[in-house]
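Researcher: Structure for this, please.
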Amino acid sequence: MDTRWYGSWVHVSLLVTVLLALTGVQVLQAQEAGTKGPGTVTLDLKDAGLGDALTEIGKQTQWEICASAELPGKVTLRVDSTAGETALDRAVQQCGSRWLRLYLVGKPTQQAPAWESKELIQFLMDQQRDRILHMPFEKQQGELLRNVFAFRPNGGDRGGPAGQLQAGGTFPWDPLRPFRAAEYHEQVDLSVQNGTLLSALDALWGASGYPVVAEEDLQGDVSVEAKQEALETVLDKLCTPLNLKWRRVYLVVPLEELNRDQVAQRMNQGWNMMWDSFFSLDAPARQKWLQWGISMLQSIPPAQVAQIRQSEFAPRMVEAATQLVTRLNPQQRREVAPLAQMLLSVFGGQ
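Model: Predicted structure, token format:
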């Protein structure tokens, strides 16, 4: 397979990343662990199941760990009074899985939901999508550009430079990638005056890098001033006046190895979901996104357009754009026509 066109993927992905960031479809990048949290563990494990290792880590740290029911791999690990997240990372990495720390806020009078890992991922995906859609346009661009991804061949260096796709290969898919931050902060700045709790939690997510979300529809206004205060101290300041509680959760899931057809299926699903999200925006916001998408496609150099048209990716994009036009109503078709025509032009459609 000719892989020269992948050099132009950064240009195309600035547009396609809208699809991926809004739907959670992300290809593997290296695990980006945050600053080590509290809790230490002592372990002496040999060929232990990952689930058993997580149970022991949770027992010693009193952490809530939400893990997939079937986690592959065995763990051999010996640590003595080691930071809990360091031990967690080493155990999970041995088995080719991934983990994420997050915070859930709810009412103390209700029993905390017993999340399944897939349900929690879907919940976070919905929260992330709503979060991005309600950001100012300039901030939306920054969030989406942060998620520009790189394909990595199966068996390659998971933390190293992006590789080329190999014919017949599979793709390691990290379900937690959409929720990771470029960096994490245990000490945060936060200034909220008579703001809604949900907007304050969203601001705390942005300030810390860790997902901070409400498990239910919570109402109430809050005010808080924090300057380089501990993240969990700020959470206390937000929750205590409203008689709410927060809990730290560690989500652990295996990587998914997807073949080309599965990747294409997910991208098609994401494409449709992206446009559903797009039409939920108001008219001025939609116009901004259309103009941005067109300008990104116009910026691709002619030589790279030629390479894109020769790639296996091109027919998929032509098919997706064509299907989009056919499923929209007449008014929607007229609105997206300039972008659809530009997509067909770049990817070789008629």
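Researcher: Any notable elements?
Model: Residues 40-95 form one domain. The chain has three domains: 40-95, 106-153+170-280, 281-349.
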